[in-house]
Amino acid sequence: MRYEHSQSAPMYLILAAVASSIWVAAWFIPQPVVQLSLATSGGFVAILALAFRQLTVRDEGEELLVSFGPLPLFRRRIPYCDIERAEQARSSWLDGWGIHMSPSGGWTWNLWGFDCVDVFLTRGRKMRLGTDDPVELVAFLQTQIVPHDTEREQ
Q1: What is the pLDDT of residue 92?
Q2: Is the distance from CB of 106 to CB of 128 less than 8 angstroms?
Q3: What is the distance between the alpha carbons of residues 55 and 47, in angstroms, rounded to a whole number?
Q4: Interatomic CA distance for residues 105 and 95, integer angstroms
Q5: pTM, two decimal places
Q6: What is the mean pLDDT of residues 132-151?
Q7: Which of 4, 70, 133, 148 is deepest in the core (most CB within 10 A)?
Q8: How far apart are the C-alpha atoms of 81 and 43, rounded to whole Å?
């Protein structure tokens, strides 16, 4: 079974509007140093807009690829052998969007909305993946999880 799903969100439009506003402000500022600083800042925000337009979760054979794009600056590979379990969940506004440590524990990779999948990894780590396809993602991950031996038979 293969899995690939991309979620788009309008957040990039907000970032694009901010970048445009910064560039317009740079145009009207007479000091060259301030113009350069604003133009550079606007470029950085425009790059972030391209980096956070969509979130793609894809099966890559032995691992799950989580990638923001279309400019793939932020990506994470999760080997299936490191996944202990996956559960459908709902995030709160406290969890927010983007890539960051979550108040609920672990890392959050979320683009938009509150539907998510909590992926519990070995050594007690957790990753929260935002998605508008949580049922299918959990079902796919269930087929990929390798059982971990918690007890050795004597």
Answers
A1: 80
A2: yes
A3: 15
A4: 10
A5: 0.80
A6: 83
A7: 133
A8: 39
Say yes or no to pLDDT of 152 above 50: no
Q: What are phi and psi of 87, to 5 degrees?
A: -135, 140
Instruction: Judge residue 20's burial from the number of C-beta atoms within 10 Å of its C-beta, 0-12 exposed, 13-18 middle, 19 or more buried.
Output: middle
Q: Where are the beta strands (DSSP E) in the chain?
A: 4-8, 54-59, 63-69, 75-79, 83-90, 98-101, 107-110, 115-121, 126-130
Matching residue, tokens 């969100």: 9
Measured CA to CA, the distance from residue 110 to residue 49 in angstroms comes to 14
**Bridge partner residues of 86 (DSSP):** 119
pLDDT at 151 over 60: no
- pLDDT for position 97: 79
- Cα angle at 57 between 100 and 70, to 5 degrees? 80
For residue 130, give the nearest of 81, 76, 80, 84 by alpha carbon.
Answer: 76
